[in-house]
Write a structure and sequence with these properties.
heterotrimer; A: Rossmann fold; 2 domains; 7-stranded mixed beta sheet; globular; B: ABC transporter involved in vitamin B12 uptake, BtuC; about 0% strand
């Protein structure tokens, strides 16, 4: 019976294909759940580059040394989450349940990292998000307690909001600010409300608080509202791909106020896509190539040599996240999720290329300093440092 | 061999197979016989079969073109998540989860009833557009309800969808829809597809048939959504967008309209192909639609369109041979 | 007042772009009674054509517009010839599914080739004028001007030329028309060519108004334009234009009074209400089912 044969053939074929032999059986497997396609592909690409750079170098030295036996190589298993929250959750499930990774790096955007963290927590696997700044990433949603298995490799939004509010009031002397942000994405929403609160507390006034939704291309209605409110600066806590369109439409409407951004701006793509419209804007970031330590200089040189462009903050943070995982693997001494989580929780201080990470006991959030950068003449210029 | 499949199975075979299958699901789950990934894919397969068969009722047997199935999924997913996370979180999953799934199905079914009422006025393309509007309204409506997390999604859903519960719901769906389309009443649904005016003239209550098709289809769409939510443990409105609906449509038309076996085949092929082609990245979504387009050009009704695997056809449909007195 | 006027200009600009895309949906539906779901992605590809063209050689605006329109027309005809014509006598649903599939193929091929968004080089430097608080740029005027010009041209073509008459005849009765000596295949290909070319024009204008282009933008804008065509009465050319301006205004003015997340809700609720009370759109004619 042809029908039945076709059916059986298809099924066996598919099962065979999905369960092909695993070449990394003996290695320490680390999963990456990153944004290779979708709205912010540059973020995923930087993350992938940095992780490959880190682990290739590590594997050339023989791999990671665990307590028993010889050094083990590290195998990276990279999966694309498309920058979408639901895909990030299902990728996390796949990596942890089927690929059997010992730890997961990523996702980077908070919208993806929060649900993925939920999965990692329930499946008891260490996850470290290099770039997600939203406080909810490391918090258990039901109990409000810190998650046990989820860590991050960057500062959080409440700190970033204070840095920006201070910078805008003290350094730029602005009193009236407008905010335009993506209401459907977790990080921008948090940054917008936190900035509003801290800026108002610092004596400023929010004259317009406008929203849009992921995927919007026309902001003329919101910008016309903002223009009527006459702000001195416009805070745009949105991802790098939305900023150019907003900036360009604002300039065409005759808005001359300076733009202020969050760390979501950090990809160099913003300069390529934004051109003159974003020139002169300031934003808060994790890392600047201009104030690098010796270790960071080596990383920047290696990265530039391999990929032909300087690393952005996502790359640097991913590099540090890889470093943190390796550190914990060594300390835990076993290729085992639970041992890794115990060792990770015991890390108090780590010196990375983006500065020093300090962890408080019982918290997955490091205490780190921030920098403020300006986009000037087609490059990111360092402006100032901000200590926690 | 050929002969044998043209006949219904010997009595009791289907029931035995079913019982064995469900028992296997239970055993596999209880003793962790397969790795979590295989389990994940099998659950996805079950959910896809439910979605595919239930959409086939409206798009295949009744011959309308609904693009709103993901909307029913969304309703079922969100209601069941509310039940299991917010309203009955204190309950034992053993009875609370089935309740949540049924609740999700009922909400979807009730909304399907309303959509069915609209189908009295319009048909064809315009009804398709109404289902599109329905889908987008559900999606953007959910984005504006902070109680369920708005656009950022609903967190904290427990991992309660088991292989066994998915298998039971899949069998229930297949059983219900088989019995509906082969019933006297269900012939009315097929009559609507063939010629609504003639059916009306012959005394078929086409309105009732349409309502029944919409309600049953959306009920099971909601059930699938509920299972999906408790498998993924996270839902947000943009999960249930046109892309999701398109995926279900692809399964239906790949397998074939108006056929239970076709729906199973379509869902299976789609589920396994999209897992197996994973390494291709975005090219995967070039290859799958290309297959579909080629299939449509060379076999416009899908692999099993309008044909049925004889084991799914009720015994009374066959010319009575050995059943003579 | 100037605030209102500014928003009105925003609405007209958005509506003009929707109108050009909506016309593509409406023309194909009018002639073939088929929803060409791939049209949004054809529009998207056209702005990538424009991007590539400007990357290779910097041509002036008018030349770019014409070249891209021609290229997109070729794509439209190719789609018709390869994917839709073999299905012309198949069940209608198969054609719709094929269109959906073609859209996915175009979109994901573009996405695989260009996963990053691209910055469109400027076709010309726009000048902005300020009339008592209302800012108008030469680009906005150009977009509105080119769209309205193309729409008037199309209306003239359909109502006053022999080709247009043939198209309307095919829409009315595809069985009798070939008996009158009208080459149906050529006319249908021509319909696709014109529809796609208008989408191509929309792609160029859109890419100069919103100069960051990505492979997924066709979905969102394509569906909105489709909604515009339906609101106006799908199959009706004037209806598509009316629907597009209605939709543009509703979108812009919703955001001025409500949070932006309500925009889609309002748009699709409007669509539903219109279809319930005027099932064939504002200017559409009811299809009579022949027994």
């Amino acid at each position: 019976m042809p029908k039945a044969t076709v059916f059986l053939l298809l099924t066996t074929c598919a099962i065979f294909l999905t369960g092909c032999a695993d070449p990394n059986r003996d290695a320490v497997k680390i999963g990456m759940n990153i944004e290779l396609t979708g709205e912010i592909p540059a973020v995923g690409a930087s993350s992938k580059n940095a992780a490959e750079l880190f682990f290739n170098a590590l594997n050339e030295q023989g791999g990671v040394s665990l307590a028993e036996g010889p050094k083990k190589k590290v195998a990276l298993i990279i999966r694309d989450n498309g920058g979408k929250a639901d895909q990030a959750a299902s990728v996390a499930q796949q990596l942890i349940s089927s690929q059997d990774v010992v730890a997961m790096i990523g996702p980077n955007s908070s919208a993806c990292a929060i649900p993925a963290g939920e999965i990692a927590e329930s499946l008891k696997c260490v996850m470290i998000s290099p770039w997600s700044t939203n406080p909810k990433t490391t918090l258990d949603q039901t109990s409000g307690q810190p998650r046990r298995y989820v860590f991050r490799g960057c500062f959080t939004d409440p700190f970033q909001a204070i840095v920006l509010a201070k910078f805008v009031t003290n350094d730029l002397g602005a009193k009236k600010a407008a905010v335009l942000y993506d209401v459907s994405s977790e990080a921008p929403l948090g940054q917008a409300t936190l900035f509003r609160d801290t800026f108002t507390a610092a004596g400023g006034e929010i004259v317009a608080f406008e929203t849009f939704t992921t995927g919007d291309k026309d902001f003329s209605a919101q910008l016309t509202n903002i223009r009527a409110a006459e702000p001195e600066i416009i805070f745009l806590p949105t991802y790098y791909n939305d900023v150019p369109l907003i900036a360009q439409q604002a300039r065409r409407l005759g808005i001359t106020a300076k733009f202020i951004g969050s760390d979501a701006w950090s990809s160099p793509e913003i300069i390529k896509l934004g051109g003159a419209d974003v020139d002169g804007s300031y934003f808060c970031n994790h890392f600047s190539t201009q104030i690098a330590t010796d270790e960071a200089k080596k990383f920047i040189a290696d990265y530039t040599a391999k990929y032909g462009q300087a690393p952005d903050d996502v790359a640097a943070l991913t590099y540090d996240a890889c470093g943190l995982v390796t550190e914990a693997l060594k300390a835990g001494g076993q290729n085992d999720r639970e041992a890794l989580r115990e060792a990770f929780a015991k890390i108090r201080e780590y010196k990375g290329v983006t500065g020093t990470f300090r962890f408080e006991p019982g918290s997955g959030d490091p205490i780190k300093s921030a920098v403020v950068l300006q986009i000037k003449d087609g490059a990111f210029q360092w402006v100032t440092n901000a200590q926690p | 061999m050929t002969r044998w499949f043209r006949q219904p199975p010997p009595r009791g075979v289907l029931l035995t197979l079913l019982a064995a299958g469900l028992a296997a699901c239970f055993v596999i789950e209880q003793f962790g016989l397969v790795d979590d990934y295989v389990r994940f894919v099998l659950i996805t397969l079950g959910i896809n079969i439910i979605l595919c068969v239930s959409l086939n009722l409206v798009n295949g047997w009744m011959g309308e073109f609904s693009v709103g199935h993901a909307g029913f999924m969304a309703l079922g997913a969100y209601l069941s998540a509310c039940v299991s996370v917010k309203w009955l979180a204190w309950g034992d999953p053993l009875w609370m989860f089935p309740l949540a799934v049924i609740g999700g199905g009922l909400l979807a079914g009730a909304v399907g009833f309303l959509l069915g009422l609209l189908s009295f006025k319009t048909r064809g393309d315009y009804l398709a557009i109404i289902t599109l509007a329905f889908l987008m309204i559900v999606k953007s409506g959910l984005e504006n309800i902070p109680y369920v997390g708005g656009a950022r999604g609903f967190l904290g859903i427990g991992n309660q969808t088991t292989l066994l519960s998915t298998a039971i719901w899949t069998v229930l769906t297949l059983w219900a829809i088989r019995n509906l389309v082969y019933s006297r009443f269900g012939r009315g649904i097929v009559a609507v597809r063939e010629d609504e005016i003639a059916a009306n003239a012959m005394g078929v209550d086409t309105r009732k048939a349409k309502l029944a098709a919409f309600v049953v289809s959306s009920f099971f769409g909601g059930v699938a959504g509920a299972l999906f939510a408790h498998q993924l443990q996270f839902i947000n409105p943009s999960v249930f967008d046109l892309v999701k609906s398109t995926e279900i449509l692809v399964m239906v038309y790949l397998g074939g309209v108006g056929s239970l076996a076709g729906s199973i085949l379509g869902a299976t092929a789609f589920t396994f192909l999209s897992q197996a082609l994973q390494p291709l990245g975005t090219w995967r979504m070039v290859i799958l639609p290309l297959l579909l387009v080629l299939l449509m050009i060379f076999r416009p009704r899908g692999i099993m369109g309008m044909r049925e695997f004889s084991w799914f056809v009720p015994r009374r449909e066959f010319p009575a041979k050995e059943e003579k007195k | 007042m100037d605030y209102f006027a500014q928003q009105a200009i925003n609405a007209i600009q958005l509506g003009s772009i929707y109108a050009l895309i909506a016309l593509g949906y409406s023309m194909v539906y009018g002639v073939l009674v088929m929803i060409n779901f791939a049209h949004g992605d054809v529009f998207m590809v056209s702005s990538f054509f424009c991007f590539l063209l400007l990357l290779l050689l910097p041509v002036p605006f008018v030349a770019a517009l014409i070249i891209v329109m021609l290229a997109t027309a070729v794509l439209g005809v190719a789609l018709e010839r390869l994917a839709y014509r073999p299905l012309r006598n198949a069940p209608r649903v198969s054609a719709i599914i094929t269109a959906l599939g073609c859209g996915l193929i175009i979109q994901n091929t573009t996405l695989s080739l260009s996963p990053y968004s691209q910055r469109m080089p400027e076709l010309f430097v726009p000048v902005t004028w300020n009339f008592g608080g209302v800012t108008v740029s030469s680009l906005q005027l150009l977009i509105i001007g080119v769209s309205v010009g193309l729409m008037i041209g199309l209306d003239f073509f359909i109502r006053r030329t022999r080709y247009g008459m043939a198209m309307r005849a095919i829409a009315q009765d595809r069985i009798t028309v070939p008996l009158m000596g009208i080459p149906v295949n050529t006319m249908i290909a021509l319909t696709f060519a014109i529809g796609a070319a208008l989408g191509g024009a929309a792609g160029v204008l859109y890419a100069s108004a919103y100069p960051v282009i990505s492979a997924t933008m066709g979905v969102l804008i394509g569906w909105k334009a489709f909604v515009a065509a339906v609101i106006g009465g799908i199959g009706s050319v004037r209806g598509a234009v009316l629907g597009a301006y209605v939709l543009g205004s509703v979108e812009v003015f919703t955001v001025t009074v409500l949070p932006s997340t309500y925009r889609d809700l309002v748009v699709y609720a409007l669509l539903l209400v219109i279809l319930i009370f005027k099932p064939y759109g504002l200017l559409g004619r009811p299809a009579v089912q022949k027994v």
